[in-house]
User: Which sequence fits this backbone?
């Protein structure tokens, strides 16, 4: 396969061995892969990928079709449209992803949209519901509301006030930031 | 995510703004666009 490859701080389109799915993993034929801030850091040598992720192929999210099933995969079939956050190596023609990390791409969602979905919306969902324990209808304050991950956060409550109130206590403010860029 | 967010994506109530797409083989240009700022939404390699 070919992949975006970091070579001395530059990007090249280079040949690599095809990855092979292990137990519980699938090989995804990548159709789209979004860029994220950490990718730039990795190119600059400032973001060492986690163990097991390719050091020279960036890419933290992808969308594509399941091409090969590893042993023991139970929830997906060859040809399924999937998307995922990955530890690295997403910006390649093929990538291996554990089936636990796969999300199904709805039928009407284009590849480009699916390729930019997983990182943003997983980050936003994690921040709002897993880390902060918020529930539907609660008010939130979104910093950097025009930034990509905030696109996901804005899909929650529309109005905001600080939570928790920061030291010094600024006055609660309400605003809307929708549609994006508003 | 699967229970709360994917249904919204499937129904079109949540969209992913895509600022630009580039061929994967042209990643250098995509990273330049990403770094340039003044974009709204994702830069995506396809």
Assistant:
């Amino acid at each position: 396969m070919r992949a975006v490859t970091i070579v001395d701080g530059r990007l090249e389109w280079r040949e690599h061995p095809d990855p092979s799915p292990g137990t519980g993993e699938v090989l995804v034929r990548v159709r789209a892969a979004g860029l994220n801030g950490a990718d730039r850091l990795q190119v600059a040598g400032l973001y060492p990928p986690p163990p097991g992720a390719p050091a020279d192929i960036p890419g933290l999210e992808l969308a594509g079709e399941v091409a090969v099933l590893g042993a023991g995969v139970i929830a997906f079939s060859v040809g399924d449209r999937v998307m995922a956050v990955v530890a690295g190596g997403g910006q390649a023609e093929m990538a291996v992803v554990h089936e636990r990390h796969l999300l199904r791409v709805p039928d009407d969602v284009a590849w480009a949209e699916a390729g930019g979905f997983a990182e943003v919306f997983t980050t936003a969902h994690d921040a709002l519901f897993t880390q902060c324990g918020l529930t539907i209808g609660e008010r939130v304050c979104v910093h950097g509301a025009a930034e990509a991950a905030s696109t996901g956060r804005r899909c929650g409550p529309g109005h905001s006030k600080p939570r928790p109130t920061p030291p010094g206590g600024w006055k609660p403010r309400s605003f809307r930031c929708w549609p994006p860029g508003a | 995510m699967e229970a709360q967010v994917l249904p919204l994506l499937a129904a079109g109530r949540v969209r992913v703004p895509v600022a630009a797409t580039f061929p994967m083989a042209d990643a250098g240009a995509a990273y330049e666009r990403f770094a340039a700022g003044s974009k709204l939404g994702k830069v995506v390699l396809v």
Q: What stands out?
A: Chain A is about 20% helix and 25% strand. Confidence is low (pLDDT under 50) at residues 157-178 of chain A. The helical segments of chain A are 37-43, 111-115, 118-131, 148-153.
